[in-house]
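pipeline stage [seq->struct] | target=Alpha/beta fold hydrolase | organism=Micromonospora zingiberis | residues=265
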Amino acid sequence: MPSDPRAVLTRPAPEPDLTVAYGEDPDQIADLRRPVGAGPPRPLLIVVHGGFWRAEYDRRHTDPLADALARLGYPVAQLEYRRTGQPGGGWPGTLTDVRCGVSALPRLAAAALPGRVAPVPPILVGHSAGGHLALHAAARSPQDVGGVLALAPVADLAEAYRLDLDSGAVAALLGGGPADVPERYEEADPLIVVPLPARTVVIHGTLDQQVPVEMSRAYVAAAQASGGDMHLVELPECEHFGLIDPDSPAWPQVTARLRSLHEDH
């Protein structure tokens, strides 16, 4: 593992094959990667990046992850969306962008990558704040989602606000705390909307300093208690960024759980 786990965020990776737009805003786009090798069509993987919904983090920090997934034979779309600090970002644009992208990308990817995208709902692979957005899309647009692999997701927005994760990130996204804008938390907080219709696997490192593993434990327990098909995989000795690093010891666990979602798709 690299001495600095954050190194994956700036590690060079091959450029995507092409970029498509799902809306008119410059950030309503996605980078597409063609699956490496021959094989039958597979479900589209939509990678939803993290960065606590902030403008300074974009989809390109998931390039190593997306390239590795394409090398496993999957068609991949790296979804971009408007973020806090940008016009139209935050509430509700960040959330509606992701839902619109998830709905449109299977069609766009199938047209751009003929013969490589199976005609089934995509599997969402979301990390950190992107994990939150993937869970939100699965809850609010269930017809568009075939499965979710949530990597260290921010799965409890009220608790993330209380903990002041990333110095006010949730307040910046939603415009305040649960007492200020309760209706926005009811719409956007995954913990309030359980269970999910889609099969979901949550993976979280026990050494995570950005998003506490206790958040995933509480979220998965609530989903299971409500009858949801959801499983939690805890990885000891894994921190926040190892989950999106193909060179980390956590990577085989990530790919194994993705494979199980694909095979059950």
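stage status: PASS
auto-comment: The beta strands are 18-21, 29-33, 45-48, 76-79, 123-127, 147-151, 199-205, 230-235. The mean pLDDT is 96.
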